[in-house]
Amino acid sequence: MIKRLREKNHRKAARDRRARAKIFGTLECPRLTVFRSLKNISVQAVDDVAGKTLAAADLRELKGTLGNTVPGAKAVGMLIAEKCLKAGVKQVVFDRGSSLYHGKVQALADGAREGGLAL
User: How is 29-78 classified by DSSP, letter by letter?
Assistant: First the structure.
């Protein structure tokens, strides 16, 4: 059982490294990185040149009854779009990490697009 979990985590880390090796964010076009947990979904706009986070949003900021669902992820996407536009960022590079572009990750990207960000 432990060996299987170790292999699963190793494969996830490898997918993460593969995705991040191709993606790089700058001040004009930062990297929009997504983190999913069982209870939360969070997203950050990161300038990799300076190593700084320009804007961040997560589900805990929305004090609604959306929960960790697809509509909740879409609301987080709209929130990060609002924060990025306020910080002067109009275009980002989407970094899904080791997650598939499906479900909550896709809804977050769609919400960011609807909020005015160019992915």
Answer: S-EEEEEE-SS-EEEEEEETTTTEEEEEEEGGG--SS--SSHHHHHHHHH
Instruction: Note whether 97 and 42 are within 8 A (CB).
Output: no
What angle, 0 to 180 degrees and rounded to 10, lies between the N-to-C axes of helices 104-114 and 70-86?
Answer: 40
- Helix (H, G, I), strand (E, B), or coil: what is residue 94? strand
Sheet holding 31-36, edge to edge: 52-58, 41-47, 31-36, 93-95
pLDDT, tens digit, 9 for 90 and up, residues 39-80: 999 999 999 889 899 999 999 998 877 888 999 999 999 999
The Cα 109–Cα 86 span in angstroms is: 18
Q: Phi, psi (5° rounding) for residue 21?
A: -70, -25
Handedness of CA 47, 10, 12, 20 (dihedral sign): positive
- Provide the whole-model pTM: 0.85
Structure tokens at 77: 């996407």
